[in-house]
Design a protein that fits this description.
about 35% helix, three-stranded mixed β-sheet, about 25% strand, 6 strands, single chain
């Protein structure tokens, strides 16, 4: 009997929890099944030597270094996985913004330098416990668009960018919009 009384507060919460969960469900459901969808493009990279090694790809030759903040040398002219992820996510998000603008019938700036995405990837957690993850801070800077249109473009880009889709629910991504 005591165990039933202990569960009563939880049971009273159940209908409310279900309601809250359903309110958080996105309005649009993703219909793309990435297991069976046709492949549009594939990129391949071979990594030798982990964080202090070398990456080779079809159009890529990159040397890696351990960042100084992680106890490595931070060799000039070399990169690391977080920097590569930041570059990929930033470029993908900006492309998603351009495609979103077209679908929303909004004009993006013509000059490349009038639309800039700065992505910062933070390696977070505890290295000693091998409990690490990433967090992304993105700054979207656009010149010549009104605030309402820019916000619509950014919101749509969050929905269609493959990196945003892949990280949703697993990687915190903060996006700051700046009008130039």
């Amino acid at each position: 009997m005591a165990s039933i009384r202990a569960l009563q507060p939880i049971m009273r919460q159940a209908p409310r929890l279900a309601t809250r969960t359903s309110l958080r469900t996105p309005a649009s459901t993703r219909l793309l099944n990435t297991d069976t969808a046709p492949v549009l493009y594939s990129a391949q990279a071979k990594v030798v030597g982990a964080r202090t090694g070398h990456i080779e790809g079809e159009n890529l030759q990159v040397d890696l270094t351990m960042a100084k903040a992680l106890g490595g040398p931070g060799d000039r002219g070399k990169t690391n996985p977080e920097e590569l992820f930041a570059a990929g996510y930033g470029a993908c998000f900006q492309s998603a913004m351009n495609a979103s603008a077209i679908s929303l019938k909004v004009q993006m700036p013509e000059k490349k330098e009038d639309s800039v995405v700065e992505a910062t990837v933070h390696l977070v957690g505890d290295m000693k416990q091998l409990d690490m993850g990433i967090r992304v801070d993105m700054k979207v800077k656009v010149r010549g668009m009104n605030e309402k249109d820019l916000q619509k473009v950014v919101e749509k880009a969050k929905e269609v960018c493959p990196y945003s889709r892949a990280t949703r629910g697993n990687v915190t991504t903060n996006i700051e919009v700046v009008h130039l």
